[in-house]
Amino acid sequence: MPHLTIEYTDNVQGIGTVSALRTLNEALMASGQFREADIKSRAVPIGTFAVGTQTAGRGFVHARLAILDGRAPEIKKALSEALLEALRCICRSDCPGIQLCAEVSDIDRASYSKTIHEPGTPST
Amino acid sequence: MPHLTIEYTDNVQGIGTVSALRTLNEALMASGQFREADIKSRAVPIGTFAVGTQTAGRGFVHARLAILDGRAPEIKKALSEALLEALRCICRSDCPGIQLCAEVSDIDRASYSKTIHEPGTPST
Amino acid sequence: MPHLTIEYTDNVQGIGTVSALRTLNEALMASGQFREADIKSRAVPIGTFAVGTQTAGRGFVHARLAILDGRAPEIKKALSEALLEALRCICRSDCPGIQLCAEVSDIDRASYSKTIHEPGTPST
Prior knowledge:
3 copies of one chain form a homotrimer.
Chain A: E1 3-9, H1 18-29, E2 40-46, E3 48-51, E4 58-68, H2 73-90, E5 97-107, E6 113-117
Parallel strand pairs in A: 1-2, 4-5
Antiparallel strand pairs in A: 1-4
Helix pairs in contact in A: 1-2
Pfam families (chains A, B, C): CHMI
Organism (chains A, B, C): Marilutibacter maris
Keywords (chains A, B, C): Isomerase
């Protein structure tokens, strides 16, 4: 926790890199809500997509931040806006209709489990 | 909003195309719930999968529709059924045990953010 | 239902196989909560990722189990822990900072739809 997933259609540049993810992670760090090493982000390219029913040039970048439940609505809104602002700076496209969006979802805290894997051979 | 994600195992044909996604988007449009340009759909092929613990020929197509919260249960059910019906028409497979499923999930409206990206060089 | 999604960064071995997924499915079967053929699992490799803002060797494996709503918190916690224990046995990595995590999320039961696809040509 938190888990950040960035989906981006293949007509958007600048977002599918480790560097871009680190910039997003820095934006999350700046919120003061998370420990540095806990922020786990991935970029997922979307090759097959459709926006609406027209064939016009369109695309999207969608950020989904999943955090343990219990945070206040205003904190979630601030996290979402910080991600969107970072995406505005990172993303490049010649396509006129690229939608950028950010959502924040809750992870059920009571059933969340986590551990650090020890290197080497598994015990079984 | 809405976001539609179609996962399909690689023993199912007909679904991993822009054309198939547009057909699904048309089904969503027909519901009267969404603006045309807001419907953002992607198809995600699943190469490594397991259904249960048997090695028998199986597979699945899973539609996940994420919409802003606040819609009535009967509307969600109708959206789910419309997607499933469209999938029944679109998908082809020689495998006897393909499961088709559709779920509708809520996006937290209060923290959802969205903008349209302006083409060209980012400002920073 | 249930749907299990395993994301793994590409510095983790042992998890991106049908055999590994079957082992996880067996752990879910052992809970007594699910019918064998209903357990649908996929492994998704993550090529572009960042953990925090450091460049140190890190990575993660994230299990997300989505089940129909209504199960008790202690059942969800047990499912999460069973998945984490199975991941500990399955995953291998030379990287010292691999985080393993498991979450359980609810699927809205009222709007979930499912059918079995009939082989052959679709009716339309």
